[in-house]
Write a structure and sequence with these properties.
With 406 residues, the protein is an alpha+beta fold. It contains 3 helices and 24 strands.
Length: 406
């Protein structure tokens, strides 16, 4: 080529001059390096600055959580128990921004109005458990609880994309902590458009390096609630238009992974949607809250058991200034809740703070929200799943529910 011909045409002395210049430049660089290193070795302060700079560069390049787990024993099939280590009680927090963390102690995180990233789910768990994360479009991924970073900051932790194979395009809407001793029962799932699914617990894949299809979700729908249930469990759903339905899980035929759901409630138009759900037991109350912050609680006993797929019964007479119900939770009077607005502001409150009223009553204000701000969802601090008494953990846009023994 032309370049090769030009080099061959050059006189030998010109080539020698180019090589000499290259050697001279390299020599000058080495001399400057020697001077810098000698000055560095002569100054303890400069050495500390250089070490700090190099460590910062290493951290910038490599500082992400370990994605492999070192275990003892021979090679072979790895079980979920290989990840557990010491069994310790803890509380898991999943934030709206996708951060995952757990507490150091066996006590719930202290959530205040000062949190910058409000909770989507707060679950009592154990380091031996497996955390299942569910996305709006029906995908799921697993994370060993003991791999979650520990922090006293409820909106701290590590983003989920560093602990599992979900991507930033995946929106987490539900989370369930499953104990290794839990071998029987089901996971129930509900969508915003009123579909319900039941999956045998034995059909879950366990610890998985890759996300898996949990439920087939229609394009205009989204997964909002997943919980552990038994054959005898009753579910209660609340809609945006102020209706509620209570039905038995046994009305829902179990289906396999990746299958869709069946109708749980008949919605009233395209703008209607499910805003909350939970386990219906006679010792619980149903809290409903409008977008304007008006709320009330009603005993579950006022909700009749119906067949799956009906319109349900009225659960609140909507105030004139409210567009509809924005959030709902089912729980006991001593349960702790967190109301979250569309601007990301969190308002902690106990269940018993809401006014007690009948199903057709209006309720009263429980929080004073800012102008141009509306209630978006409610998160309930969940108690641990105990197989001896069929429980449920759920997250519905941050609203959660779990049944446990005390």
């Amino acid at each position: 080529n032309e370049q090769a011909d030009a080099i061959l045409a050059m006189q030998l002395r010109r080539l020698a001059a180019l090589e000499r210049r290259k050697l001279e430049d390299e020599y000058k660089e080495k001399i400057e390096l020697i001077k810098m290193l000698e000055a560095l070795l002569a100054s303890e302060k400069m050495m500390r600055v250089e070490v700090a700079r190099e460590l910062a560069a290493i951290r910038e390049k490599y500082a992400d959580p370990r994605r492999t787990v070192i275990i003892n024993g021979p090679a072979g099939n790895i079980q979920a128990s290989d990840f557990w280590g010491a069994s310790e009680s803890t509380w898991i927090t999943v934030t709206e921004g996708g951060n995952l963390n757990r507490t150091y102690q066996d006590s719930p995180p202290r959530i205040t109005t000062e949190v910058k990233d409000p909770p989507l789910a707060v679950i009592e768990s154990n380091t031996a458990d497996t955390l299942y994360l569910f996305t709006a479009d029906g995908m799921a991924a697993t994370v060993p609880v003991n791999m979650l970073p520990q922090t006293e900051d409820p909106d701290g932790g590590t983003v989920y994309t560093t602990l599992c194979s979900l991507t930033t395009d995946d929106q987490i809407t539900c989370a369930v902590g499953v104990p290794p001793s839990l071998e029987e029962g089901f996971l129930a799932a509900l969508t915003e458009r009123g579909e319900v699914k039941r999956l045998k617990l034995e059909d879950l894949p366990g610890m998985s390096a890759k996300p898996f299809k949990f439920m087939d979700i229609e394009a205009e729908d989204r997964l909002i609630w997943v919980g552990y249930v038994s054959e005898e469990t009753e579910l209660l759903l609340v809609t945006h238009q102020g209706q509620a339905i209570r039905f038995s899980v046994s009305d829902v035929r179990p289906t396999g992974l990746g299958a869709g759901g069946m109708r749980a409630i008949k919605l009233q138009g395209q703008k209607d949607r499910v805003v909350g759900a939970g386990i219906a037991t006679n010792d619980r109350h149903v809290l409903v809250c409008t977008d304007t912050g008006v709320a009330k609680r009603t005993p579950v006993t006022e909700y009749p058991v119906q067949g799956r797929g009906g319109q349900g019964v009225i659960t609140m007479k909507l105030p004139k200034d409210a567009t509809g119900l924005a959030a709902a939770a089912v729980g006991r009077l001593d349960d702790e809740l967190v109301l979250v607005t569309d601007k990301g502001h969190a308002y902690p409150m106990p269940m018993n703070k809401a006014q007690a009223a009948g199903r057709s009553a209006k309720g009263d204000y429980v929080v004073t929200i800012l102008a141009l701000e509306v209630v978006d969802h409610v998160t309930r601090l969940e108690r641990y799943i105990r197989p001896s008494s069929p429980p449920a953990v759920q997250v519905e846009n941050g609203d959660t529910d779990e049944e446990s023994t005390t």
